[in-house]
Amino acid sequence: MDRITIAIAKGRLGDEGLSLFNNSDMEIVRDKDSRKLVFSDAGGGTKYIFVKPSDVVTYVEKGVADLGIVGKDIMLEEDKDVYEILDLNYGKCRFAIAGFRNSYNKKKDGVLRIASKYPNYVQSIFENRNQRIEIIKLNGSVELAPLIDLSDVIVDIVETGNTLRDNGLEVLEELDYISARLIANKASYRFKYQIIKKIEKILDVSR
User: Fold this and answer.
1) What pairing do the DSSP bridges indicate for beta strands 38-41 and 46-51?
2) Domains along the chain?
3) Are the beta carbons of 153 and 104 closer than 8 angstroms?
4) Quick one: which of 197, 179, 178 has its CA closest to 188?
5) Rounded-to-integer distance, Cα 15 and Cα 100, Å
6) pLDDT tens, 167-194?
7) What is the pLDDT of residues 59-75, one digit of tens each?
8) Which one of 82, 100, 134, 177 counts the least CB within 10 Å of its CB?
9) CA atoms within 13 A on the CB side of 179
10) 125: phi then psi, degrees, rounded to nearest 5
11) Cα–Cα distance for residue pair 84/89, rounded to 1 Å
12) Can you give the pTM of this predicted structure?
């Protein structure tokens, strides 16, 4: 059987993805307190590498990993040349434009200021709209931006909306549906098709 490498996003999303392999012959063998970044299953046929969520699609596109488990938000932001082969049906949320109720009317000089962790995605959303925008890239809590007049609106992932409401903000427009996805390197999908279909079946039954 072909050996296969799977890139896993560090954190809750990746941990939940790994749990889908439990009770299969691809179950990971590791000490959860370990700081190692590479693990295998008991038979040594599957290698798991743990990387930053934003790097999963890069590892898969470049062929360092055959498969990856990553959020759809990262795929939309990075826009890499990979196959999306399965919606894993967890980590569900949505991209949304959010702000104060009258945020769309606060534009300065006709320019809508948008704070987001996802500048490429924002650009793709607004490129066909008749709206001039300024994208403000933030890495932390984007909800702060409208509160201190750094931006008019934000584009971010919304799960429950509680953080928005706690800060007096609301969803102004819902955008793309987000969840965890299984992705594949294009060459790997061709040459390791049988093992990838086996993994797809394991994950599809487990979820």
Assistant:
1) antiparallel
2) 4-91+179-206 (3.40.190.10), 93-176 (3.40.190.10)
3) yes
4) 197
5) 35
6) 999 999 999 999 999 999 999 999 999 9
7) 999 999 999 999 999 99
8) 177
9) 12
10) -70, -40
11) 13
12) 0.88
